[in-house]
Specification:
This protein has about 90 residues and is an alpha+beta fold. It has a single domain, classed as Alpha-Beta Plaits (2-Layer Sandwich). The chain has helices spanning about 20-35, 70-80, and strands at about 5, 10-15, 40-50, 55-65, 85-90.
């Protein structure tokens, strides 16, 4: 199962995460980066992990100051490094 991240200035949607541990690792790193810039985020989950599920989907909604181009590029680079396919939406 290949994970995919869809990034815009207002939200980040990650789908196809195979395990809870992988989801926890991704969230830990993203929260630290996003919240250090005084942004508020809301996180929601859906789906199920494992070989018979479609994977976990995480939706991160950013309130207040939205992501700028530099932030989006940094987050996209993070996902590419960990092997996640990235799609950036222009708002």
């Amino acid at each position: 199962m290949k994970s995919e991240a869809i990034i815009s200035c207002k939200e980040i949607y990650i789908k196809g995460i195979a395990t809870h541990n992988k989801a926890q690792s991704i969230l830990y790193n993203l929260r630290e980066y996003i919240e250090e810039k005084n942004r508020v985020i809301n996180i929601s989950f859906e789906g199920s992990p494992g070989p018979f599920g479609e994977g976990i989907c995480i939706k991160i909604t950013i309130s207040g100051k939205h992501l700028d181009r530099t932030d989006i590029k940094a987050i996209a680079k993070f996902f590419k490094i960990i092997g996640v396919k990235v799609t950036v939406l222009e708002d």
